[in-house]
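Lab notebook: predicted structure, single chain.

Context: the supervisor wants predicted structures on file for every construct in the current expression panel, including those that have not yet been purified. This is the next one on the list. No modifications to the sequence; it matches the entry in the shared construct table.
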Amino acid sequence: PVTAMINPATRGELGPEWVEERKKALGLDRPMIYRYGLWLKELLSGNLGYSLVGGQPVAEQIGARIGPTLLLMVSAITLGTVIGIPLGVYSALRPNSWTDYLLTIFGFLAISTPVFFLGLASMYVFAVNLKWLPTSGMRTLGIPASTTDLIKHMIMPVSVLALVHIPLVMRYTRASMIESFRQDYVTTARAKGLRERAVVIWHAFRNALIPLITIIGLSLPELLSGAVITETIFQWPGMGLLAMRAVNARDYPLVLGVILVTACMVLISNLIADLCYAVADPRIRYR
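Prediction complete. Output recorded below exactly as produced.
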């Protein structure tokens, strides 16, 4: 492990004495089961180790970057859901129409387009040519921090991530709504003379929420993987950019810490999705 941490360009300059010294400093001369127990003990106390590059605590570096990443993720999921659900409902109400075909084409194009292409294209159009938005970062240097400036920096990265999320939500909403429209309770509601809006919202859409909650909860890992590319392109100071720099620098404790925190975020999102099932469907109860 110590040899893998060394830059190949300078590997010949370091002798075996330096390697042995680093092994002792990192505790790699102990048995594996002992090292694992020590790591688990430190993990439970909140100690994720120290960066091999800067020597700073990994927990502090991740703690400083997790806020911008959560801001980006929550904004992208919210925007993608708010836009994707109405488009999916509209498409389900008019199946096989020209608007349905246009939305289907848009969905396939958005899903198949790489995130880095969307990021570079939006930067070229809106930042370089039109000069409407800043190219990178989270705040403009040299001016006081403000909410308006933060929103301007968020527009492009959030829009790129949301554009990947919108077609996913839209297609699942369309499929779930069409399936709900075929159920007997929807036919009965229409036969009773309920308004179409009430039938769509309170009968069809509410029963279509379960698969939507599932797909929205499971979309977080996909957005996190896209955030690594998006944060790198726009130099957004989040966990994605931190992970990319750690990988390039062979900073393995920092990479491991980012992966661990990301896995915890995915587990928490799945737990929130499970709790939302009971809200969407009263028949589901957790005991």
